[in-house]
Amino acid sequence: MKTKTRRVSSLGRPSVWAVMKQRVRSLFCAGKSPTISISTAASESLVQGMNGGNGSLRTPDLLRDIADISLQISLDTIESLKPGFLSSATIDDDLKNIKECSPADIEFDRDSRGRLVEIGSGGFGTVFLATHRPTGDVVAVKMFKRKYSSDQRIRREAAVLGHLAGTKLCPEFYGLVDYGADGGVAEGRFAHLAVVTELVRFRKSTLQCFDLKKFSQTYFARRGLTPQDWLNFSLELVEGVQEIHEKGVGVFDLKYENIMVTRDRQGAIHPRIVDFGAACALNGDKPMMPPERFSLETLRALRHDSVHLAPEIFEHGVSSAAWDVYSLGHVLQDLAEGEKMEDLKFLMGQCVADDPALRPSLALLLQEMNALSNADMA
Ligand SMILES: Nc1ncnc2c1ncn2[C@@H]1O[C@H](COP(=O)(O)OP(=O)(O)OP(=O)(O)O)[C@@H](O)[C@H]1O
């Protein structure tokens, strides 16, 4: 069994943060809805730390621990809140029938020093470049951090990819690979299961990949694009999410980093989505929701990178299309602002209403966006 080192303060006692972390963990493990009491001094330090100040707790460690805890909480919550979590009809069948890939089918690319070539990474995994031997296709292999990834979670992500095969935004799914107990190429850093998908590259002729964040910051790649190009891109994204919803699935983690940009021969840009790790059946599942007592404020402070998620996600609600509407609004409002597209920005402002009932449906949103597009073309 893995042994854990406890962080100890200079006085030889566990630090305030270590104690707090332990308390939160034990409460979650006990399956209770915890009220977390943080001493005034510690919470002040926390706020100072968040604001870049010099709290008495060591800020970088603190922030890393916060991220660790919130991820761990999300996972524990997924696993424990609803034992029948995976029983939603749409995904359930796919879970029994996940396409598999043999480790021998995957040939990893290596750099001149023999290291695996990394395409990207996130909180849960790292994605590597490889070739799928049977087809000769270039693929992306997502290896999952052992610490955060149960088999169930990985299988679920693979099942969703299989379920969404053929939809416009979802990358082609090659299969789930099992590297066995010794981890094979994963060298112990990652879980034994990995997910293989198409490499979503910028152009067919290159291995370069751009997520929307990187793309927005790369002048040469976005050179020459007009507001109409961006509007078309946004329309395709919203249409694509609608198609995914029609397959009974919500993405629930739409953000700049998970939206890839491709460019066709005519120079038009198109969106794709990677990372279906938070995807769930619509109107059925209860995805990553911390217990009620964990207020949105606390959570927002803790998971400072989750502002793209609808507030009600943190409140035990039943999953709904409105969650993706919120995230789309968050991304596209920002994009519209950058591109100085006032009408689009205004429209997207309605998608980020705190009250889900006030957000437009995807159908209505598309209607409005098409009207914008036609007006611009006229
Ligand atoms: N199929 C792919 N083709 C090209 N790039 C990819 C692909 N899959 C993932 N990436 C890149 O790798 C990054 C990390 O992948 P992914 O988002 O799946 O990891 P994650 O750990 O689940 O992330 P998060 O912390 O957001 O949940 C992505 O942001 C993207 O830039």
UniProtKB/TrEMBL annotation:
GO MF assignments: ATP binding; protein kinase activity
Pfam families: Pkinase (PF00069)
Gene3D superfamilies: Phosphorylase Kinase, domain 1 (3.30.200.20), Transferase(Phosphotransferase) domain 1 (1.10.510.10)
Positions bound to ATP: 142
GO cellular component labels: cytoplasm
Residue stretches making up the Protein kinase domain: 113-372
Keyword Transferase: yes
Segments forming a coiled coil: none
Keyword Kinase attached: yes
Keywords attached to this entry: ATP-binding, Kinase, Nucleotide-binding, Transferase
GO biological process: signal transduction
PANTHER family attached to this UniProt entry: AT08303P, SERINE-THREONINE PROTEIN KINASE
Protein's recorded name: Mitogen-activated protein kinase kinase kinase 21
